[in-house]
Design goal:
InterPro entries: ADF-H, ADF-H/Gelsolin-like_dom_sf, ADF/Cofilin. By secondary structure, this protein is α/β, with parallel strands linked by helices. It has one domain: 3-Layer(aba) Sandwich (Severin). It has 3 helices and 7 strands. The protein has a 7-stranded mixed sheet.
Length: about 130
Amino acid sequence: MEYEMVVLVHKAEKGLYFITTMSVPAPSAIPTSHATNANAASGMAVQDECKLKFQELKAKRTHRFIVFKIEQQQIVVEKVGGSAESYDDFQASLPADECRYAVYDFDFVTDENCQKSKIFFIACND
């Protein structure tokens, strides 16, 4: 089964963040019937814009980050960060006292001097 890394960011006092990571089955490894049932069981709908913006971030790399929020039993896009925006811009877009979910496209250079990118899924709770 294929797995991907999920990063959970928990905000603490005085602007400190605790980071937890875990491996979960990749969406492609979960049968469609299970994914659909899980969504139906939660009663939470995902707006099409969420999926579209994520595909743009993943395939076209037109966004640095996407912040999602829950609004009236739906997951909606709250903010989209342009490709030139920084991690500081991303942090500034997160409210201090409300739960948000986000996707962040992190660019880095390996020890072998290769340009790489990883997409992090982040849950920020108050």
